Amino acid sequence: HAEGVEIRYYSVIYDAIDDVENALKGMLKPVYEEREIGTAEIRQLFRASAVGLIAGCMVQTGHMRRNAQVRLIRDGKVVAEKATIESLRRGKDDATEVNHGYECGMVLSYPNIEVGDVIEAYELVEVPRDQVKKDSKESGNKGNDK
């Protein structure tokens, strides 16, 4: 350490490159990938003075989870991109999760819902940097050293 500068010695240039790459990866913001957790169709709408509009749904694939990010799809078009499930109930009981094949009631953060709308729930999963790099640099010049 001379004046706050770290000095490292390498016998092979590739070790130095790998070290610099790893140091840079640590400085980058994490990359997130969307992973679908389930879909549900709105079959009926209910009004409740306390919470507003409740969507009576049938979970079609996967599961619905309270506080999950959701996308609202109407006639094949995305109507709301980043809504959340604010409340989830199975019958009269609060639920954390409702699996496919079951009916549930939910209140979304997006109020403009209609019968027939599809609710697509997803989660954001952090993707390791080395997996991101492989995808974007696949056609890089590995092996074309000058």
UniProtKB/TrEMBL annotation:
The keyword Protein biosynthesis is annotated on this UniProt entry: yes
Single GO MF annotation: GTP binding
Keyword Protein biosynthesis: yes
Regions annotated as coiled coil: none
Keywords: GTP-binding, Initiation factor, Nucleotide-binding, Protein biosynthesis
CDD domains for this protein: mtIF2_IVc
Matching Gene3D superfamilies: Translation factors (2.40.30.10)
InterPro entries listed in its UniProt record: TIF_IF2, TIF_IF2_dom3_sf, Transl_B-barrel_sf
Name listed for the protein in its UniProt record: Translation initiation factor IF-2
Source species of the chain: Corynebacterium nuruki
Phylogenetic placement of the source organism: Bacteria, Bacillati, Actinomycetota, Actinomycetes, Mycobacteriales
